[in-house]
Design a protein that fits this description.
A hairpin with a 2-residue loop joins strand 6 and strand 7. The chain folds into two domains: 90 residues, no CATH class; 178 residues, Ribonuclease Z/Hydroxyacylglutathione hydrolase-like (Metallo-beta-lactamase, Chain A). Helix 6 packs antiparallel against helix 7. The protein is globular and about 60 Å long. It is α/β, with parallel strands linked by helices and 271 residues long. The strands form three sheets. The chain has a seven-stranded mixed β-sheet.
């Protein structure tokens, strides 16, 4: 966030898709940065499916001593106790429903919808509608008809993706090195994430305007691996498609069409 020039105090809420460690590990630090960057006087809102209250309670307890130290170090004007930590806002889905509106404010509507990330349950994605434009974030999922329905005619779909072929190479390397637990984990991953091709199929089936692939597994150390990662995704979805990177900025102007992509990441001088 610092390298992208994003100001922590502008964060009004965090929406969680599910509670795997890689999706919640930085949450306490985000709350801390927001609190002390501008002397926030209310805790950070954390919106998520059932279980979010347990995650927030645990992180609040883990950071409780630190929060006290911050106020003692810097005083209540800089670190007011009322702004420390987070407050959980769990939502549920009515019986038989697969989507629910979780935010509707100043023209912005956020809708949570169920996805398939078994054995994680519930796991959700989000659709954001604002001034005639729409962005959908998959969370983590395999190809899910519920996502296709929620993403219908969205301008941009941001979907997690993996490469089964590249992952198999990494798994084989782990087994050859005697790292059996790691190899087993790698073998399990394709069972709860979509491939790039399946993400492209979801984009096509939903009729979205553009597709950004994120949560890339395995990470690609060189750009030359991108065609192998994508496979035949371009044959399944004909619109603009990108491998997302930290610092990407996707702009959707009201009243316009298409998606503009730019970079926000700031590098230190000389790098």
């Amino acid at each position: 966030m610092a390298r992208m020039g994003l100001v922590p105090e502008r964060i009004e809420a965090v929406l969680l898709t599910h509670f795997h460690s890689d999706h919640i590990g930085g949450l306490g630090t985000v709350a801390l940065a927001r609190w002390v960057s501008n002397a926030a006087r209310s805790p950070l809102r954390v919106i998520g499916p059932p279980g979010v209250e347990r995650v927030v309670a645990g992180l609040n307890e883990a950071f409780a001593l630190d929060s006290g130290y911050r106020t003692a170090h810097h005083g209540e004007e800089v670190a007011p106790p009322s702004g420390a930590g987070m407050v959980a806002e769990p939502f549920g889905l009515p019986d038989g429903e697969e989507a629910v509106v979780v935010l509707d404010n100043d023209g912005l509507r956020a809708t949570a919808f169920l996805v398939d990330h078994a054995p994680v349950a519930p796991a959700v994605g989000y659709r954001f509608d604002y001034r005639g434009r729409a962005v959908v974030i998959s969370g983590d999922t395999v190809y899910a008809p519920s996502l296709v329905r929620a993403a219908e005619r969205a301008d941009l779909l941001i979907h997690d993706a993996l490469s089964p072929d590249l992952l198999e190479l990494v798994e084989r390397t782990a087994r050859d090195a005697g790292l059996q637990n790691r190899a087993r984990i790698l073998a399990d991953v394709p069972g709860y994430h979509a491939s790039a091709e399946r993400a492209a199929q979801a984009a096509r089936d939903a009729g979205v305007g553009a597709l950004a692939l994120t949560h890339v597994i395995p990470p690609l150390p060189v750009g030359a691996l991108e065609p192998l990662f994508l496979g035949d995704a371009a044959m399944r979805f004909s619109g603009p498609m990108w491998l997302a990177r930290d610092g990407d900025l996707y702009s959707l102007e009201p009243g316009a069409s298409g998606v503009r992509r730019a970079r926000l990441m700031r590098w230190p001088a000389g790098i």
